[in-house]
Amino acid sequence: MSYPKIDFLYLSEPDMVKAGVNDPVKCTDCMEDLLKILYEGDYRMGGENGNSHGCMVTFPVEPEFPNMPKDGPDRRFMAMPAYLGGKFDIAGMKWYGSNVGNRDKKIPRSILTVMLNDKETGQPKALMSANLISAYRTAAIPAVGVRYLAREDSKVLGIVGPGMINAITAETFCSIRPIETIKIKGRGKASIERFIDYVSEKCPQVKEFIVCDTLEECVRDSDILSFATSTPTGGQANYPTIKDEWVKKGCLICGPGAVNVSDELIAKSKLVVDNSKLYEAWAEEYPYPTFDTMFLLGCKYLDMVHEGKLDKSRIEDLGGIVSGAIPGRKDEDEIVLYSIGGMPVEDVAWGKTVYDNAVKLGIGTPLNLWDTPYFY
């Protein structure tokens, strides 16, 4: 009896670039398709609820064993599995380790790979470098929000945390709205200069960069805001906090990173999330007050529901807005608070799209799993 040979495709980071992983418009299109599928429910992620962000390994502050890593900012390993239906129809997983200390070694804080697998047999289809998958999909999910929720005449973008994620976010937003001015609040001169160099090259439409000394200066007069700071520790008192009077009428506030706002601003704003079930899963995994552990606005929304301060029906999924089931912004003055959690289905969606293009173009290195399985 003969048994099937199994090969899979390895795609390095240069391969991924050749296959189009860094195309912000196509990635935004892909995430728009994904959000519709999420709203329909044709997906599964980890956990019994099928909506878990993933399984995370963290470390003690003072490990008992000498070789065990110590806790620190963004110090973790994480496995993020998912199945995504619709036109993607594939299973996969993002796997990564993260450590702020990597910067001292001149390597990225997080190092990521994505594996794609056949949904029926589980056999690997591709193993790919995923730092760019993750970066571009992280920018594209808020970009879909910009397409549907930002004012058409948005010209001023406020950036809080000018790292690589927000640099790609700015590049993506500039492909959607007529951004002319970018205001930047960062901690270090080097990261601010890298941000300006990158965005200047990618977005010639931007006429002015304003480096802000305070969060207030960055927030005031911004039509769109994007928060992507390093993960803070110590609870919500340590998150960047916006005062109501700073926020311009009609502003869209995108929170893929930590940001805090008042209960009063939440009460009078449109509340949008990428996937409400994700935040419900976090509320199960990290019981109230979830916002002290998970720094995303959607977790604050559910904490307020728990406290009786917010009607849960006010929390709207962007997929419903994209699909036309939920209305978008009601007028030009409405402030929109958009929480972005990040999900492995996004990595699977963009990874599958880039993989399909790599196969079409003949890019990548075939690797053999076996010619004949040792066991069957």
Give the overall average pLDDT: 96
Query: Total helix count?
Result: 11
Beta content comes to 15-25%
Assign the structural class, choosing from mainly alpha, mainly beta, alpha/beta, alpha+beta, or little secondary structure.
alpha/beta
Give the low-confidence spans: none
Q: What is the approximate shape? A: globular
SSE topology string: EHHEEEEEEHEHEHEHEEHEHHEHEHE
- The percentage helix is 25-40%
Tell me the number of strands. 16
Our Rg estimate from Cα atoms comes to: 21 Å
Distance between the termini: 12 Å
Structure description:
There is one protein chain. The chain is an alpha/beta fold and 376 residues long. The chain contains 11 helices and 16 strands. The mean pLDDT is 96.
Short overview:
The chain is an alpha/beta fold. It has helices spanning 13-18, 24-40, 131-149, 164-174, 189-202, 215-219, 263-268, 276-285, 297-306, 318-323, 344-361, and strands at residues 6-11, 43-45, 55-57, 76-84, 90-98, 110-117, 124-129, 156-160, 181-185, 208-211, 224-227, 252-255, 270-273, 315-317, 336-339, 365-370.
